[in-house]
Design goal:
Layout lengths: L24 E9 L19 E10 L6 E8 L10 H7 L3 H7 L3 H12 L5 E3 L3 H12 L10 E3 L1 H8 L26 H17 L4
Parallel strand pairs: 1-4, 4-5
Antiparallel strand pairs: 1-2, 2-3
Length: 210
């Protein structure tokens, strides 16, 4: 299954999520990756179903409550193995082939800019092992990994536990709705989903549940 990022899950890029620091900043990020009808259910197992990054979205938030948003980041990435987006992906995300033609950049440029956005932040979290896709795509691009070890962490198990849900139901775009909030704008976009994750983390910490 060449498209899967499973093989990098023991990478030194990530460590277990323990807690938020008492001060400084945290980056919350989310990816949009190439997808086709049914690809999630079958684990991207068909030939040529490579999990290429199409968008990186992130927010930098204050680690201390109330975890105010300090900065945001969003960039489109031109996939190389499957350069034409599927109709399924376009309908899900709203990202079009025309968008990529006008605004997309090579993955290496996107990851370098993301690294610049992260800067000296000591913790980068995602709702899932999104960092695996970054590692895999960096390998495909033949570029050196630009981040320090253990910078990334998967916060999904903690969010799922706090919400009393199985991890399979903690979809980033719908997290705020599990806390009684309305759906947030930008569902299934990198920045929109990063903000949904940050909103949920902020709310759960305010309730002393995270």
């Amino acid at each position: 299954m060449p498209g899967r990022a499973d093989r990098v899950r023991e990478s030194a890029a990530a460590g277990p999520f323990r807690d938020f620091p008492e001060q400084g900043a945290v980056v919350v990020f989310d990816l949009e990756i190439t997808a086709w009808e049914g690809s999630l259910a079958r684990g991207w197992s068909k030939p040529d179903e490579f999990m290429e990054v199409v968008q990186i979205g992130a927010v930098k938030i204050d680690a201390a409550m109330p975890m105010a948003e300090l900065a945001s980041f969003e960039i489109l990435v031109k996939p190389e193995k499957n350069p034409v987006l599927s109709d399924y992906f376009i309908e899900l995300t709203g990202i079009t082939n025309a968008d990529l033609s006008r605004h997309g950049v090579p993955f290496q440029d996107a990851l370098t800019r993301f690294a610049d956005f992260i800067g000296d932040t000591g913790l980068v979290v995602s709702n899932g092992n999104d960092w695996c896709d970054l590692v895999q795509n960096a390998d495909w691009a033949g570029m050196a990994w630009p981040f320090k070890d253990d910078l990334f962490a998967n916060i999904r198990p903690r969010i799922a536990g706090a919400l009393g849900l199985p991890e399979s139901q903690t979809v980033s775009s719908t997290l705020p709705q599990h806390l009684g909030h309305k759906a947030m704008p930008g569902a299934h976009t990198g920045l929109g989903d990063a903000r949904a994750i940050a909103h949920t983390v902020r709310d759960l910490r305010a309730q002393a549940r995270l």
